[in-house]
User: What shape does this take?
Amino acid sequence: MKNSRWLSLLVLCTGFLLIVVDMTIVNVALPSIQKDLGFSQSGLAWVINAYLIAFGGLLLLAGRVGDLVGRKRVFLAGLLLFTAASMLCGLSFTQPMLIAARFIQGIGGAVSSAVILAMVVTLFPEPLERAKAFGVFSFIASAGAAVGLLAGGLITAAVSWHWIFFVNLPIGIITAVLAMRLLQTDRGIGLGRGADVLGAIMVTAALMLGVYAIVQTSDYGLASPRTIALGAVAIALLAGFVVRQARGRNPILPLRIFRSRKVAGANIVQALMSTAFIGFFFLGSLDLERVLGYGPMAIGLAFLPVAVVMALFSIRFSAQLIARFGAGTMLGAGLATALVALLIVGLGPTNANYFVYLLTPMVLFGLGGGLAFPALTMIAMADVSPSEAGLASGLLNTTGQVGGAFGLAVLATVAGARTLDLAQAGVDGQAALAGGYHFAWLIGAGVVAVTIVVAAAFLRSQAEAPAESAPAECEAAA
Assistant: This one.
């Protein structure tokens, strides 16, 4: 029984790895896609944006649907849709076909990933085993970005961009077959317990419109009338949704879930953390390519220490550390380590030697993620009832995606503005680019500092509350 639970976790994490890797693997292949299909620069952005809009907009709804109709059923449906859409992406020979397939792929990714955390909670009710399971999941969630960069460079260089999508087919099919055999079937609580169709439409429209407004800031700017208008409509829809949830009989997002300081605080921290971590990977890739002249494979290898260290701590050490010191303490330690890493790269030289100036922050960033993400997931899911675990899982993923998208838009805009100012002041091209990236990293460090304050304010009680049964379990494990 114990082995079957860990095999089930492996299946869930493989399905999630497909989705996480797909968010970054496409970035490396974009120049090849642009050349092959004739995309303009602005049109090429939709290869990424179509996926993000569908993914970010549907996470919350998908998580609640999993509670209602059964999480295994929802996971399988999303995984199969994602796999089928991957085939369409690989077969695409026109711009509209690829963009439409990427949108469908985003829907499949949202549907399957929204229920995974809830299924992990059900599989591992004991605190120490749950911490270990969350460590594995958090590693997949965080290090998948580096894996995507490495795989994208390798596949695009060795074969063609089409195969970054085709590679999903055998993995997706095998994962689906194993999921059908290994995952425990659950019935759900029934559509009558939360089938708020209008509320679902409102929140999905609000999130999709909000993500759309965010991803378009690269073309129109954060303060443009277009961005402000779209943002205002998204906020209005979201406000209407909140009012409906407060008054409705069967809300899709019961507002009582936010009565828990852990749930509310963890989601705020998740949004802020995502800004710093996604910004580090995105701006770091640009710095390595445009300033230091790295190719796709070299970029992937440069981020490898982040993945290796994050894997080591997420899978091997985080559970024991959380059991001994508490999830809040480990969250604070991870955030402080990430803060140091961002300060090092932000204050580093323009043409930084990798082994002298970048290897150490890469290791520290992996350590920070390996400590912080499993701890935060433990905190976010600790006070949630089994009937609402899918909702809490979808909510945590939503705040991470939407918060990360918005934060990345801000950091990218700040970096661009700083680069422009330096260029106008007579600084040469590469130095101006580096100045923009370094300035954005320092802003990211400020975001992490704010995150530490928020975590201390909302999650203070968790810092001194290791799981009561954990010491005994640690002894048993030893």
User: Anything to note?
Assistant: The radius of gyration is 21 Å. The chain has two domains: 2-183+252-477, 195-251.
